Amino acid sequence: MIERxxxxxxxxxxxxxxxxxxxxxxxxxxxxxxxxxxxLQFQGRxxxxxxxxxxxxxxxxxxxxxxxxxxxxxxxxxxxxVSNSENLGHVQRAANxxxxxxxxxxxxxxxxxxxxxxxxxxxxxADALKPYRHTLEALIRHRPHTLSNRxxxxxxxxxxxxxxxxxxxxxxxxxxxxxxxxxxxGKEVPLTHxxxxxxxxxxxxxxxxxxxxxxxxxxEQFKNSIAAALTGSYQKDVFYTRARNFExxxxxxxxxxxxxxxxxxxxxxxxxNNLDSLHRxxxxxxxxxxxxxxxxxxxxxPLVADVDLVISYDEAxxxxxxxxxxxxxxxxxxxxxxLTVERWVDRxxxxxKRSGAYSGGCFDSFPYILVSYKDDDIRSMFTLAHEAGHSxxxxxxxxxxxxxxSAYSIFVAEVASTFNEALLSAHLQEKFKDDRNVLIYLINQxxxxxxxxxxxxxxxxxxxxxxxxIIEEDRPLxxxxxxxxxxxxxxKYFGDSVSIQGNDKLEYSRIPHFYWSFYVYKYATGISAxxxxxxxxxxGGDKEREDYLNFLKAGSSAYPLEILKNAGVDMTSPEPIxxxxxxxxxxxxxxxxxxx
Length: 596
What we know:
The chain is globular and about 75 Å long. By secondary structure, the chain is mostly helical. It has two domains: 4-146, Butyryl-CoA Dehydrogenase, subunit A, domain 3 (Up-down Bundle), CATH 1.20.140.70; 246-312 and 389-596, Orthogonal Bundle (Neurolysin, domain 3), CATH 1.10.1370. Helix content is 62%, strand content 3%. 37% of the residues are buried. The strands form three sheets. The protein has a three-stranded mixed β-sheet, covered by helices on one side. A two-stranded antiparallel ribbon has the order 1-2. The protein has a two-stranded parallel sheet with strand order 3-7. The protein has helices spanning 22-33, 50-79, 85-104, 108-114, 117-124, 133-141, 149-162, 164-176, 193-199, 205-221, 223-243, 249-255, 261-272, 276-289, 313-323, 329-339, 378-400, 410-431, 436-472, 479-494, 521-539, 542-553, 560-567, 575-595; strands spanning 181-184, 187-190, 294-295, 345-346, 358-360, 368-370, 498-499. A hairpin with a 2-residue loop joins strand 1 and strand 2 (187-190).
């Protein structure tokens, strides 16, 4: 493994675009430290006038903009060499500064709630507060669910204790559980959370079976403790729901995004009515793998081994740029320049570099991308496309919106990234249409991506919904109840060609997202919106392209549903989900024709 110091400069991201050296960063950090308490000059004065409130918000967001830049620089340095203790120290200093700034500004939200609604509405009509109108409107929406100062203080004091269930689950799964090892080709391979995802895809069925048995045996051993932890997490949701005067846990979970509960239930209902193509895919897998019936651990093995295709980083950039031509010359030229000349990307693995991939940065930086690109792994190209979608989303939002609206919500975050993947997949399937092996690989990959992101996440979302209904009705949640609900969903989603038996029903106990209530549905809605927009742009003209680019530029200047609707997709309608189900069915048809 190459040392970080030996990585060629052209393969690294240009962190010096933020600060020319650590000396300049140190000066910026100290300058910001000296200004932490400036925000306190407005404490007790936010209700004086629109101009005073605007000045306080200008200062607040201005300080945080500087903080983002300071923190991003340390993050870029640390993530490419996590073994460097000096860089870790810089990250900690930036984090400490962030904590001090948060503490100094903690009075702003509760003090704004003390300003009478009529007065705040009057303030919002002033020109001085025009840049913050949406921010303040969002704040006013929370008034019916905001308690007295004393009650709010008690809720705030309870937050750490209320997080106990998640902490217990995390410690149990990551510290106390020991899974042993699995024999692979005569050698014992340690079974961990990380290796499970690899071993369960083994072409050797005995390896898959042993992996499943040993992994789930540990969850079986702790099943009562995990059920108690998950029950505690859902009891916390009920407590906050009732304390803040919401009708249901689902309503509270969707409130910040101003999302009607119908978006969630519409997703579950629409997918429930379109499971035939998913069942057909599992049936096809069973026939091709010669397994009748399949077990749950058979559903992850790839139908096609990795194709013998070598694509360099520069070639991947060109494939990506070519696939995104429907977005126009401006988009593709900015992206190509960023991925090459401007060095947004830290391209390859090196010793000490953190694993995974992400798009990050701040308002005043490039939208940086961290990957570990591999020439012989076609998934690397799709990972680059995915993160490039995020980065272009950030680029346009940062160029168009003021700092306070430059970020975008989680609900829309995966749309731009999945949009890029959809266009790349279509482009490659056309390019390699005469290479049967590559074409099969690409189609199967797209099928599995939709299966994992839309169908599976919707199954998780349905589990959350059912479990919350049970506890909201003051009925008991036990390991048997959780297992019964989850087993019925496994039978529903996997169909007759997959045999659900044994401890398969304990799969719910290994899903950490269940402790982040009503989060996973956003993956399913995100891919549905992306596929609808990709179809709209590629089959449309200038207007459809501009609508999509305006979506990228919107940031958080409006609520997610409004931003998507302006782009041409209505997530309150079943149409985007139906369209994705239709695409999935067509891909299964093509795969079946090619394979059989």
